[in-house]
Every structure is written in C-alpha cells, then in structure tokens.
Amino acid sequence: MLRPRLAYLWRFLGHPAGPAVVAAAFALLSLPLVALSLDSVSTAGSMYEPNGPIRLRLIDPGRWLGAFGSVMAASLVAGAVCGPLVRKHAKIGVFVTVVLAWEVAIAALPVLPALFGMNVGFEYYCYNDCQAAIAANNPEGVLFVLGLPWTPLFEPVPALALTAGVAVWAGLLRHSAGINRVEGRPDSDDSVNE
To answer: Who is most buried in 50, 139, 152, 170, counting CB within 10 A?
Structure first.
C-alpha cells in the first residue's frame, strides 16, 4: 500500500516543479515553529514607550502573516533554484539552499503584513531608542539585516528548522534522483553524481 505512493513521490520529485512543491510542504510544517518563535512588536504609535516596544501576542495575525510569507517565499524560490544543484552536488547544494532560503525568508518577512497595512516589526533592538530591525512600514531595515551573517544567532529556532528541513528535502531529492535513474525513468537532470 505504501510502496505505490512512494513510487509516485519519487516520480514527482523528478519533475521540474517537484522540489519546490515538496519544499513548500516542508515549509508549511515549519510554519508554527517560525511564527511562534519570531520576536514581533507593534510599530504603531511611538517607539519611545517606557518599557520598550509593545510585543505582539502569539496569535496576532501580523506575526502569522509575516511567517507564512517568509517560509513560503523561501521554500518556493530555494526549492526551484537549488533543486537541480542538490541533485548534482549534495553538499554545495545544501549549503547554497540554506543561505538562499534564509536570505529570501528575511527579505519576504515584512511583505504580507505590509500588503495588509499592519504595523508590525520583527527583531527589535535598543540602541539609544528601541526599534524594530525589520518593520512592515520601513522596508529599508531588511537591507540592514540581510547584510549581517550572524542573523541566525538571533533566531535559532527558525534557523534550525530551516537547516533540518533542507537536509531532509535534499535527502529525498537525492534518493529520488537515484531511484529514477536506476529504474530508467527520465529525471529532470541529465545525470546525478553520486
């Protein structure tokens, strides 16, 4: 019963759209981890609150919209771009996938909240005054955060979820490429270097 379904999965991963779709499925699994671990604050009103910015509740739609847009954009872009690379060169492909997905996730974080007109910010810091590093109403903060190589240290849960998801995704992709090649089914790539 399980064997025909796995064969379908292996064939689907050989399709050019397969890696991006499977990466998006893994992203949906990681959505609660990412949304609940984001340090999100309200950017409405004054940033000079006596106790710092107002933190958003765990069920706030701005937090969840930012996380959803972030994980879906990262999975679709990195899955589509890096799928062929992972099939040919596993270690380099996984590294490039993690870096690309992390950068796309940071860049996409404020997009959906900004489209819905929400005043939400992510990763606030205090230097003279407290402000959000990534704010939906101030997209220039994304450029600052993208240039910092140590940003995964500020958000370890999403970074670990991303790394684990990419490792499992790459393993499935490499395994399916080997099975498709052995069984004589066409793969989207010409060859796979084992």
So the answer is: 170
Q: Report the predicted TM-score, pTM, of the whole model to 2 decimal places.
A: 0.77
Nearest partner of 56 among 71, 38, 41, 46, judged by Cα: 41
Contact 69, 112 (CB under 8 A): yes
Percent of the chain with pLDDT over 70: 71
Contacts by 42-51 with C-beta closer than 8 Å and gap 24+? 42/119, 42/120, 42/121, 43/119, 43/120, 43/121, 43/132, 43/135, 43/136, 43/137, 43/138, 44/119, 47/129, 47/130, 47/131, 48/129, 48/130, 49/130
pLDDT digits (tens, 9 = 90+) for 131-153: 777 777 776 777 777 766 666 77
Q: Which two tokens stand for residue 82?
A: 């890096």
DSSP H or E segment with residue 157: helix 156-182
